[in-house]
Amino acid sequence: MSATRFVRALTRAVVLAMLTGAVLAAPTAPKGIPNPGIVPPNAHFHGMTYGEWLAGLNQWILSVPAADHPILEGNEDNIAIGQPEHVWFLANAAPFVDRHFVIPSGTALYATIFVVELDNFLCVDPDTNFTVAQLRKGAKDIVDLLTDIEVQVDGTPVDNIGAYRSTSPEFSATLPADNLLHDTFGCLDVGPGTYGPMVADGYALLLEPLSVGEHTIHISSVLGGNPSDIIWRITVVPHSKIK
């Protein structure tokens, strides 16, 4: 991968720095299980692996119109837009935030820590022609720069964060005309349409449905010498109270 393409990819990764938090594990989880309430890294959840959910996260991020996008501050009330029925994606677009979301009970969460998606088209002008293997290596090289990852759930650390890194299968995504990359991040070459192949690499936690109540999460990390500090305040309410 050329130095120019790597810098463009790293810039996009930092801009989209989807640094979010894990949330409180259910108090009824069996004792003796590492990180109870968090789906084990090698497990399937609703029929999908961590890597397949990683692909789904990126498809969701790219498919939602920019004006209403819940990864942007001020759009917290839009968290339900475009979400799957049983698992909601949590992601963020800034490295220093303190945000609040309302989540319906019975909903599992795919909580992003940091991910990178690479392809030959988005925010790349002119287009490139890297192979899938080269794209995978480029994404890996960027994620490898992330250090000092700490996730606390109501003050309790999540153990062995490194085990929750995954790579996606090859996938494609369909973007609207008013997509996030074009309207918010200034990638004027990104028009509506379906793009692929894409690949992704990164860290995330799949969380089983949470109990009703208030939860606070705190995530910190360093990417290439640039620190981040994220606070997410999660209110889980009975499903019937979601409008």
| Annotation field: number of helices | 4
Distance between the first and last residues' Cα: 47 Å
Q: Which oligomerization state do the chains in this entry correspond to?
A: single chain
Give the beta-strand count: 10
Could you list the spans in which at least 5 consecutive residues all have pLDDT below 50?
A: 2-8, 13-32
- Mean of pLDDT: 86
Overall geometry comes to globular
Helix content: 10-25%
Structural class label: alpha+beta
In the residues, how many domains can be counted? 1
SS strand fraction: 25-35%
Largest sheet: 5 strands, mixed
Q: Give the ordered list of helices and strands.
A: HHEEEHEEEEHEEE
Q: Using the CA coordinates, give the radius of gyration.
A: 17 Å
Give the SSE map.
Blueprint: H1 3-15, H2 50-63, E1 87-90, E2 96-104, E3 108-118, H3 132-143, E4 146-153, E5 156-157, E6 165-167, E7 171-175, H4 180-183, E8 193-207, E9 213-223, E10 226-237
Parallel strand pairs: 1-3, 2-10
Antiparallel strand pairs: 3-8, 4-5, 4-9, 6-8, 7-8, 9-10
Q: Your description of this structure?
A:
The protein is α+β, with helices and mostly antiparallel strands and 243 residues long. It has one domain. The strands form two sheets. Strands 1, 3, 6, 7 and 8 form a five-stranded mixed β-sheet that branches. The chain has a five-stranded mixed β-sheet with strand order 2-10-9-4-5, with no helix packed on it. A hairpin with a 2-residue loop joins strand 4 and strand 5. It is globular and about 50 Å long.
